[in-house]
Amino acid sequence: MQGHSTYTPGTAFERWLDRRLPIVGLVHSSFVSFPTPKNLNYFWTFGAILSAMLVWQILTGIMLAMHYTPNDALAFASVEHIMRDVNYGWLLRYGHANGASMFFIAVYVHMFRGLYYGSYKEPREVLWLLGMIIFLLMMATGFMGYVLPWGQMSFWGATVITSLFGAIPVVGQSIVTWLWGGFSVGDPTLNRFFSLHYLLPFMIAGVVVLHVWALHVVGQNNPTGVEPKSTEDTVPFTPYATLKDIFATSVFFVFFAWFIFYIPNYLGDPDNYVEANRLATPAHIVPEWYFLPFYAILRSIPDKLGGVICMFGAIVMLFAVPWLDTSKVRSANYRPLYRWFFWILVIVAIGLGWLGAQEPKDWYVFISRLLTAYYFIHFLVILPLLGLIETPKPLPPSISEAVLAKTGQQAHA
Amino acid sequence: MNANSKRMVLLRQGLLAVGLLVLVMPAVAAAQEAATEGYLPTIVKQSWSFAGPFGKFDKAQLQRGYKVYKEVCANCHSMKFVAFRNLSDEGGPGFTEDQVKTLAAGYKVQDGPNDAGDMFDRPGKPSDHFPSPFANEKAARAANGGGLPPDMSVLAKARSDEKRFPQWLFNAVLQYQEYGPDYIYNLITSYGKEPPVGVTCPTGNYNPAFIGTTPCLAMPQPIQDGSVTYDDGTKPTIDNYARDVSAFLMWTAEPKLEERKETGLKVIIFLIVLASLLYFTKRRVWSNVAH
Ligand code: HEM
């Protein structure tokens, strides 16, 4: 899109079309001739993996919706109907349920990649913001999707999370009633969640288009964090990146297949095979694993409103990361201090995730508070300060020279 | 510092992070133990023919399990998502269609209303679902001292011993998905044990395998040695009944288990071959670029 298109319409039809809708040229410049830094590692394949997962979720989702019934008396039975009577229904359902988890594994790797290599820094701020919007939409979609099978965890998870809005002063309870479409989670809630769960992935797809557009305006970051200086530093997207992406995606699908075919219920909660029952509260209400760090933050705060603010704050804060990080150096490879804090953050996030699955008792609460505090301190204090006090390592003059230093060979693109 | 040593640094940091995690693991596990004061169920893992990537149901075992369900458990537990015709489905107990017809006809199923507007009973057909023993939840509770016997269609997927850290990590690699039948087997065979001092069940029956906040459940010991006659020479013991009915309930909960695992093997082999070919193609293409 940057005038680097080498596309010339060949046939008479292509020339005819190109003067009316230059779409072939657009695709060519975005996915064929698009210059890709030649030193990208496999963390850069997760964008492609995410795109594949989005397509997978939409396809399996549409087919599930052909057999699913969004009614509080029939939903649980219709899922069993899919599992038992629909041809390959078990594959659709297990594929979609585990697909959501794979989507989140991929997005977390993708985001931590961004945090490690400083991919959110100038000029990629908008790219990062669009990614965050996708992340928010994904969370909303995942949450509402989990309600659809109408098991005990669906019902009580929905009850706990929607009730959070009740913490808002004055209007809270009215908002909750409005969200529910009644005085508790029920048939109207299930219906609207189904409608939105069908809608949001297409909104995600729309924002992904913007995300990729923004990416192709500013170009990809790379492990050195040094912008490409010449055509020596890049290779054309096709065949180089295309092949690498397809290869990585197929490896990811081996991992995915392990879950679908051999441990399809591993990431699920057994309680969700018990039909929703408003009279029986499960002993232990736990959201899906990908919400657990945020759930731990919510529970670590003794005050309900405070907890809600911290939980949403923990996500919203990420929008500001491009401006919280004061370092001019992108890649953590050249930031001796930040590198350590990055890994501490990874461990803290995993720790919060683990705590989110435990009962909030005794010392769990204490550790949760500690880790929650650290999480905020990382972004609000450490990130801004590090840029001021850290002495970065010298950056390589260019990608090619970094590659040369590594391989010791003549680099040629 | 050149890029190679930078990669080493990255690797070392990653390893360090993992190392740290491994170090805290025992501490976490111990603390977890300490924090769960009170009752923990005792469930001993069993070996099952349907476990693992090549697992298959043992048809004779499913047929015996069906007999136990029909003669004992069905008196209290419904199984509403399972139809008689499923008993002759591929990957199931392997009854013939004729056997299923005869077997279904042995059940009374409510139908109607007829032209006069009345409900009536008729013999079951293969397309009917298993009839429920009680008319409604109230009736079921009234007959069971307030306890509600859960529907058995997916019961084998609906109970799991708490997934403890770090065990659940190994469960993913070892493909442990048999927690349901493990539990049902242990539950049925753990009646009649002496409760430890200080533990009493004011209501319900003592059972140290029961997953709950106390070891007391409303279900009395459902089966004794010899309660059901086996026709294939298998010993009529509680242990065999429990094992067979647990396998049968795994099948009712996961009737496509065999198809799933067979498909999985093909898909995974295909993906590995595909990934290998792509890997070599990718290497070939990149071979003229230093990167
Ligand atoms: C549906 C979810 C998403 C899809 C399909 C998606 C897709 C992509 C694709 C195809 C790329 C280019 C390849 C790559 O560099 O990995 C990319 C880059 C990027 N994405 Fe995403 N993305 C998603 C979500 C997110 C989220 C949640 C964030 C973080 C807030 C994010 C942040 C970024 C950034 C910063 C880049 C540029 C990376 C760089 O060049 O270093 N993305 N995305």
Explain how this protein is built:
The complex is a heterodimer of chains A (about 425) and B (about 290). Chain A folds into two domains: about 35-285, Up-down Bundle (Cytochrome Bc1 Complex, Chain C), CATH 1.20.810.10; about 290-325 and about 335-390, Helix Hairpins (Orthogonal Bundle). Chain A is about 65% helix and about 0% strand. Chain A has helices spanning about 10-20, 25-30, 45-65, 75-85, 90-115, 125-145, 150-165, 170-180, 185-220, 235-260, 290-300, 305-315, 320-325, 335-355, 360-390, 400-405; strands spanning about 35, 235. Chain A has a two-stranded antiparallel ribbon. The model of chain A has no long low-confidence stretch (mean pLDDT about 95). By secondary structure, chain B is mostly helical. Chain B is about 45% helix and about 5% strand. Chain B has helices at about 5-35, 60-70, 95-105, 135-145, 165-175, 180-190, 240-255, 255-285, and strands at about 110, 120-125, 205, 215. In chain B, helix 2 (about 60-70) crosses helix 7 and helix 6 packs antiparallel against helix 7 (about 240-255). The chains are: A mainly alpha (about 425), B mainly alpha (about 290). Chains A and B meet through helix 4, helix 5, helix 10, helix 14 and helix 15 of A and helix 1 and helix 8 of B.
* Strand numbers in spatial order across the main sheet of chain A: 1-2
Total tally of structural domains of chain A: 2
Structural class of chain A: mainly alpha
Overall average pLDDT of chain B: 90
CATH T-level topology of the largest domain in chain A: Cytochrome Bc1 Complex, Chain C
Which range does the strand content of chain B fall in?
under 5%
The geometry of chain B reads as: globular
Largest interface: A-B, 64 and 63 residues
Q: Structural class, from helix and strand content of chain B?
A: mainly alpha
Task: Tell me which CATH architecture of the largest domain in chain A applies here.
Answer: Up-down Bundle
Strand line-up across the major sheet of chain B: 1-2
Based on CA atoms alone, the radius of gyration of chain B comes out at 26 Å
CATH fold annotation of the domain at 39-82 and 129-255 in chain B: Cytochrome Bc1 Complex, Chain D, domain 2
**Contiguous uncertain segments of 5+ residues of chain B:** none
Number of helices of chain B: 8
Task: Name the quaternary structure.
Answer: heterodimer
Q: What is the number of helices of chain A?
A: 16
Task: Look at the structure and give the CATH class of the largest domain in chain A.
Answer: Mainly Alpha
Mean pLDDT of chain A: 95
**Helix and strand element order of chain B:** HHHEEHHHEEHH
Q: How many strand elements of chain A?
A: 2
